[in-house]
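Lecture notes, structural biology module. Today: joint structure prediction for complexes of two components.
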Amino acid sequence: MKRFFSVIHILTWAGAGFLIFLLFFHSRISLPLLLQLAGRLHPVGLHFPLVLLLLVMVCDLLPSAAKPPEIFLQGLRSIAMFSAMVTAILGMLLYIEQSVVGDAVQYHKWLGVALALLSCTYCGAHAYLQERIPLFRVSAAALLILVIITAHFGATITHGENFLTGPLQKNEIVIIDTNKLTAWEAVYPILKTRCGDCHIGSVQKGGLSMNDSAAIMKGGKEGKCIVAGDSTNSQLIHRLLLPLSDKKHMPEADKPQPTPAEIKLLISWIKAGAPFSKLLIQLPESNPFRQVAMASSRGNTLSASRNYSFAAADAGEVKKLTDNYRVIQSLAKDIPALSVSFFGKANYNSQRLTELQPLQEQIVSLQLAKMPVTNNDLAWIGKLPHLEKLNLNYTKVTDEGLSQLVLLTALESLSLTGTGVTAKGIAGFLQKRHVRELFLWDTPIPTEEIANLQKQFSKTVIEAGFRGGDTTVLALNDPIIQTTEGFFTGTQNLQVKHVIKGAALHYTLDGKEPDSSSAVYTQPISINATKTLQVKAYKKGWLPSKVVRKNFIRAGFSFISATFLQPADQKYRENAENVLKDFDAGDPTDFSTKWLGFQKNDALVVLDAGEVRMLKELQVNALVNVGAHIFPPVFIKVWGSIDRKNWTLLQTVNPAKATPTSPSGALLIPITFSATKVRYVKMQAHPVPVLPAWHPGKGLPAWFFVSEVVGN
Amino acid sequence: MEKEIVEHSLGFNRRKFLSRMSIGLGSAALGSLLIPDLFSSSSPEEAIMQGLPHFAPKAKRVIYLFQNGAPSQLETFDYKPLLNKMVGQNLPESIRNGQRLTGMTASQTTFPLVGSYFGFKQYGNSGAWVSDLFPHMSKIVDDICIVKTMHTEAINHDPALTFFQSGAQQGNRPSIGSWVSYGLGTENSNLPAFCVLLSRGKGNGQGVYSKLWTNGFLDSVHQGVQFSSGENPILYLQDPDGMDRNTRRKMIDQIAALNEMELKNFGDPETAAKISQYEMAYRMQTAVPEIMDTSRESEDIIKLYGADCLVPGTYAANCLLARKLSESGVRFIQLYHQGWDQHGNLPNEMKGQAMDVDRPSAALITDLKQRGLLDETLVIWGGEFGRTNYCQGKVAPENYGRDHHPRCFSIWMAGGGIRPGMVYGETDELGYNIVQNPVHVHDFQATVLHQLGLDHEKLTYKFQGRRYRLTDLYGSVVKDIIT
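The predicted structure, tokenised, for the full assembly:
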């Protein structure tokens, strides 16, 4: 065992000699590859002496009663000093290989060597020291401190400055004024966050420092970091753009990488000649660097917030004054400025405004649109020291009130839409108080006077708004016939309306197209015969609407029941027993309800009038929709009977064939015959068996749809 | 069942026990770390629930004019004259580059290019190109920012819409309006913070459904409130005949008392939501009729939006209503106009669709501007993806159609701190790929939140063990288009 310790001691002292040699001659030697690799073990090896030396010191500082056995301590000391020496040598090798520059590195180097040598001395001279207790304690404590300081500088090199205190540092939002921003100030934050750990402050890996313009232009061991105007030959960009797997890629692969936007900014900076003290706004507007830098700092300014010098309001007060109709909100987190909005006319009165007195310092935005605000209320508003934005749209404010706002020094935006202010009042106001923007739409001020005001006060943007109500000529939209189209018995009242107030509704019932000379609708129109109502709307300043028409068919009677001898198609036979007699003509665009569809077989139905009647006409409401394969039937045959046994053929009709241009919609097919006494009517309608050659579905059978059958 | 009865009488269950336990252990562990910062700041969720923006917002409110079905960028804002010269020629494979296609054109053997049948002109100081289909929108180009390089990941309507609205293609995540409501709270507590208005054009349409305005895992007060398109946009808001306001008040108080009991017993946050929703509905009874009343709109306004703005359920009426809701402090108003899915019959259908939306969309911008509201209201116009530069089926002299195209499409934004009079991004000469400044859907969402004062990386909600964001793990604010 003793032999082992002495070998360790000899090796350690030999190492000390080697270390001193390296320390003085490192600049004159080049390292063999194997030693370069060994140097890289420094960050691993350092943990041994760190722990072991600390353990030695702690044991030595313990009272003698509590000390571990001497043989253990002796071993511990030997291994500790040996590992300290090895680590120091490895560190020196790493230093030579990597040629890292910077204050922290220099301190670490010297302290490391000192630590290795001193710990050897301490362990070697242990027997001597142990006799002299005070000196022993002092040297143990001093060595302990030396270990900690050396380790700290080492950590600074690997993890960067302020690594330890990182969590305590707040990320302050910096407010950037792009007008005063220099080129270097635009670039530096990126270099600081992405490269700063190794190249800013006391660390200068690869001999490169980015501390200031002189340092970065000097470059590092590997050449020029920046070649002004030439991004491809600048190491900075070259290394950034290398693939991540490349050993030379920077920042090192395990470190956070710059975003594409940041790289874009750096490239454009170098291409712009890498200016430093030049202001961004001194560069030509077309310069890509200026554009990129402005855009990126714009984002920062926005995410940062405007600085307000006044103190925040008492949170309790804000909460107390906030309710459903008076909303007080902080502009943003950690900003003292408040915006106040009033809602609900009925809940507003002057007192609700003056109650805000405790917040007068903080209110920067006040929204009072549509509240019954009077000129008197403006006296209070006129004293808000920091008010920037005031919305008085559709309030009762007039010129007189306006004059109370001239002391609002912070006011930027004033909205007076829909108020009774005049050009004279506005001119008087603007002479005393400049605002950035002013909104005057829907005020009594004519357009040309607003133009004059704009000329007179060119620094204020005056918004006149859209005033084309009289000059814009549009077509009126369609009148609405509110009465449902279809069948009726007896008399029917027809109702019509239009969404635009004052539109005159001219109508006809005689089939002629209505014009401005036709009758004007004033009250519901009563009809007692089959009529087509056509309506067209007229109004001054508007083009007339299109004609809207609906058919109202007077039926003598409806049948009380329908019996299908051949059923409707199963998809289109909902409520079949009632559909034909419900007086509902059905929606021609929705034939899935209120309509019966036949395709495979004829429609063959027996209708019961309930009693024997004189019948001279049958009206069948069918459907045409060529695209949906719905055609008029080939023929309709009608038979009459009194007893449902003996049938007489009354009429056969062949409705006009559909053409490719037949309009879609309802088709009323009247079937007249000489008046006959019947109770039962049998109707047969034969669907078109094969779609014609011009139809895309040629060869397929067509559909026949029917919604109503009534008698006269 | 017995278990449930025991749990109910205790007001506690296994799940609650475990979650409370873990909070206890967690805080003990935190205490031992003794890092002062951890105690001074609250959790991200709590910070959000204070209803404060992360930084001073440019926009207070959003009106999103969603053009559902995906209007073609090639007939709106992305002018590609080369396509007109190359009509009928096959799309080179080098351009398509293996891009997946929908089932509707994947089996086509050729992909004949087709240019816009509508002319384009430049407008405004920005010189933005706008197709002749939009005579009114072309007049406001100096107020809007056209982004020509939107791109998305989805290729069909449902996932693409869901992706735009919720940041994920699968659904169940909160809609963007719900996120905004969650992040900023309501501005006017007498109205919902998130409203949805639907309209339908005559063009080939695609459905919309309530999952697009769902609150997902957020509290249900953040759900979008769909207005019906009839005369009565909010159903059941009117008191029935014979019930006066006092009786209604009494009823709501009694129900609230019952709900309070239930809340005490079981502590379900949905019960609390119910109580506050009843209260809001009561206040809405007076706030809503005031907003819905269009009978006093001036001739200027009617002519600005077009006469249809008085016909309930039309796009024009919804634009006018959106302005009125926004003016009254509704945070997020989502419009959907359906009918933009022009696989065929494009010239005809797009003409109709454009007629529906052109005047009212432009009117909305003008109207907000003349009331001094445009700077605080962010307006967005656009669909869920773009359309192919080649024709679906055969090119006919009067007729062509375009399939879905996720790689580039155009939208516009206005107000709310977006740079006016700007055209952002560039696509290639054939309008197939993006050449410069791509904007992904997540980038767009990040930008919208940013304008509202919300950091899209900080606006999170913890659900099923992980924090969710609208932008998932992606997205960066498009700073170039911000003033």
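Point to remember: Residues 290 and 324 of chain B are 10 Å apart (CA to CA).
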